[in-house]
Design brief:
By secondary structure, the protein is α+β, with helices and mostly antiparallel strands. The chain is built from 7 helices and 15 strands. α2 crosses α3 and α4 packs across α7. The radius of gyration is 22 Å and the shape is elongated.
């Protein structure tokens, strides 16, 4: 019986290059046609040529293109950008990833268009599933400015769970008051991700969110040196913590 273990690792050359951010499938096919792509020093035969990531030396116009299977980026999402891969009208968070433009990246979860802060961008579907699974109750902490005086009674209501119009009350949430006044400043930690959840929770106590910024998700905390619209690769330590706690458990 033939050994199929290597077959499973093989992939089309055009897919390899597209996933490494060299260009779209159509553009890399054109590069291959123009003999700009070499495999182990020889011009590629065609876009359908099978290669084994990590074994052959693949170059485009003389530049080596190594294969990285999983990538993780911390993005400081700015307001006005949508948390999607593609959008017909608005700029997306993937449009902000300019130096690592592989075709399989996606945002882990969503932040509202007008919400800022931490967003994980990756191609690791297993990790994304674990972080977003309702059964996992992954902590997500936000800073918010609130129209209205936030009180200790609000803290109690958030801890007990609120009726925001769904079938069930929200799970207990931790509300910390930084400043109470006509415009209050708070931090809130939730363990679920319902639609417009934090805005609806404050509406349930007759208040309105003026500004919302996500500070952390699970073990990942927004890098204070990043400005809105900027991103960086996760460190090996950040990646290991995410995978160890949220995937391997």
């Amino acid at each position: 019986m033939a050994d199929r273990s290597n077959e499973k690792k093989m992939m089309r050359l055009d897919r390899y290059l597209a996933e490494m951010g060299i260009g779209s499938r159509s553009s890399v096919k054109e590069m291959i046609r123009k003999k700009q792509v070499c495999v182990d020093g020889a011009a590629a035969c065609g876009p359908e040529q099978k290669v084994c990531p990590g074994k052959e030396c693949i170059t485009v116009s003389g530049r080596r293109v190594d294969f990285v299977s999983k990538e993780y980026f911390m993005l400081y999402k700015p307001a006005g950008v949508v948390s999607a891969v593609k959008d017909a009208k608005d700029r997306t968070v993937i449009d902000l990833i300019t130096e690592h433009k592989r075709c399989d990246l996606f945002p882990v979860g969503r932040l509202d268009k007008d919400t800022e802060g931490l967003l994980l961008i990756t191609n690791d579907g297993v990790l994304a599933h674990e972080l977003l699974s309702p059964k996992k109750h992954v902590d997500k902490t936000y800073y918010a400015r609130i129209a209205g005086i936030v009180t200790d009674e609000d803290v109690r209501c958030f801890q007990e769970g609120l009726d925001i119009g769904d079938e069930k009350l929200t799970l207990p949430a931790e509300l910390t008051i930084r400043k109470s006044g006509a415009v209050s400043e708070v931090e809130i930690t939730v363990r679920e991700g319902r639609f417009h959840q934090i805005k609806r929770m404050f509406e349930a106590v007759d208040k309105r969110v003026l500004y919302l910024k996500r500070l952390s998700m699970g073990t990942l905390t927004l890098d204070e040196t990043l400005r809105p619209g900027e991103y960086r690769a996760l460190t090996s330590e950040e990646t290991e913590r995410l995978v160890k706690i949220h995937v391997k458990g």
